[in-house]
Amino acid sequence: MAKATGRPVAVTVGGNVITNDVSSVTFSTPQGVADVTGLDKSAVERLLLLADCTITLSGNGLNTTASMSFATLKNPASAATKIVVIGLTGATLTATCVQTDYQVTIGADGNYSWSAPFSLANGTAAAWT
Length: 129
Description:
Layout: E1 10-13, E2 16-17, E3 24-28, E4 31-35, E5 46-51, E6 54-60, H1 69-73, E7 82-88, E8 91-99, E9 103-106, E10 112-120, E11 127-128
Antiparallel strand pairs: 1-2, 1-7, 3-6, 4-5, 6-10, 7-8, 8-10, 8-11, 9-10
């Protein structure tokens, strides 16, 4: 794969493509670690544990069109899990997540901004393809 920069080319949540409403995406795929250092060591020994994934989508404006960001994200508890797909140039991250919040801010200038955090849901690690 060649090096690439730029914005995600697709953001899909629960089957709805909301790319046009998303202004930023943050994702993390940390791996747990266990410290297994013996007393005979002078440096730390670690083993990898379970994988995790967190995703935060953010945007500006309140798009109430069916299947866009507001309709997709407004009720985090409406579905137990949502498939989140972030398509980048040459790579795609797919994760089965629970949406834990839908935060909307109304600025003094009248601008709406929103944020929606997701966390891994079903014991299956996020996958890159």
